[in-house]
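Sequence, structure tokens passed on for absentees:
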Amino acid sequence: MEQPNQSYIDSLSGDDKAFKQKLIDIIKREFPEEKQIYFDNYNAKNYKLAADNVHKLKHKISILGLEKGYEVAVAYELSLEDGKSDEKEQFEAILTTITKYLVDL
């Protein structure tokens, strides 16, 4: 499975270590909250709201360098908008991978 990385964050921040840390801190703060809101909406069968949550999460997936993960998130978002959950397991595996990665930062 594809692993998160800081390549994009590095390219955004250049040599500015303080800016890089701010980006990382924002992701570490927002990601768990957004993930929980996604799970809450999905479990309540609010698929349209869950699709909105996936939309927000896919940007963090992209920022963390997960190109294939981003594609899964796009497909899953569209699936949820249609009331389906075809890519659910793949998407949630990506969330788990990111969660583990962020703990180690």
Observations:
- Residues 7-104 form one domain.
- The chain has one domain: 7-104.
- The two ends are 19 Å apart (CA to CA).
- The chain has a mean pLDDT of 96.
